[in-house]
Amino acid sequence: ALLPIGIFSILLALFGWKDINLYKDIVKISLLLPIRRAFVFLLNFLLLPVTKYLTWMILFSIGKEPILIGQSIFINKAELIIGEACLGADNLFFVICTIYIYFIIFKLKSSQNIRLIISMAIVIPILVNVFRNVLLALIVSYENNYRDDIFTFFHDSYGSVLFSLISVSIISKMYFFLLNSELNKKDNILKSD
Questions:
Q1: Checking DSSP bridges between strand 67-69 and strand 72-75, what pairing results, if any?
Q2: Among the listed residues 190, 4, 163, 168, the one whose alpha carbon sits nearest the alpha carbon of residue 88
Q3: For FRET with 122, which of 9, 25, 113, 144 sits at 20 to 30 Å CA-CA?
Q4: How many CB atoms sit inside 10 A of residue 139's CB?
Q5: What span, in angstroms and rounded, lies between the C-alpha atoms of 50 and 41?
Q6: pLDDT of residue 193
Q7: Is the separation of the CB atoms in 44 and 87 below 8 Å?
Q8: What does the pLDDT look like over 82-126, one tens digit per residue?
Q9: Distance CA 130, CA 87 (A)
Q10: Backbone dihedral region of 83: left (phi > 0), alpha (psi from -120 to 50 degrees) or beta?
Q11: Which residues pair with 34 in a beta bridge?
């Protein structure tokens, strides 16, 4: 909560009240960090059923015969617990923040494109996170000497951030595709006049 106050104070000291419109977007973006904790807390209860059932369904559809008991998915004798870190709320938050920053800097005009990108900003991180959980379930179910190291990498280390990067990359590609299509349409209208 101190970050937005600190940034606002520094900007106010540097530029004063008269130029507040110049830096209002910076203050808005700095508010995203303190909101993260509340966002994750509020979304986890919604993401738990979606994540665990989609993970279970995909594992079932690829023939792994998973057993779902509470928050645990069992494959063979291995257990994957779908805990708070596995729900993908952070991944979803990163994608929504990315879209918000894009909206501030590169505004989409078409309401259809805005609805599409907002929908995809929700669906894509959830699907990428479910893929991550499926991968983790497959890792724990295989008898391998490196199983624990691979699991730790994809669950606790840089490997988990990789999936957020994938989500942000996909949504960024989509956003700029939509933005370019709007700009090209505008250019074609200007050229035809």
A1: antiparallel
A2: 163
A3: 25
A4: 21
A5: 16
A6: 57
A7: yes
A8: 988 889 899 999 999 999 999 998 999 999 999 999 999 999 999
A9: 8
A10: beta
A11: none
**Encoded tokens for 6:** 């600190």
Cα dihedral value 47, 49, 50, 54, nearest 10? 140
**How far apart (Å, rounded) are the C-alpha atoms in residues 99 and 182?**
16
How many C-beta atoms lie closer than 10 Å to residue 74's C-beta? Answer: 16
Whole-model pTM: value is 0.84
Buried b (16+ CB within 10 A) or exposed e, 161-174: eebbebbbebbeeb
Collapsed DSSP state (helix, strand, coil) of residue 117: helix
Q: How far apart are CA 2 and CA 10, in angstroms?
A: 12
Q: How many helices (H) and strands (E) does the chain have?
A: 7, 3
Element (H, E) at 166: helix 158-192
Residues in the chain: 193
Phi, psi dihedral angles at 70 (to 5 degrees): 60, -120
Angle at 174 between CA 181 and CA 110, to 5 degrees: 45
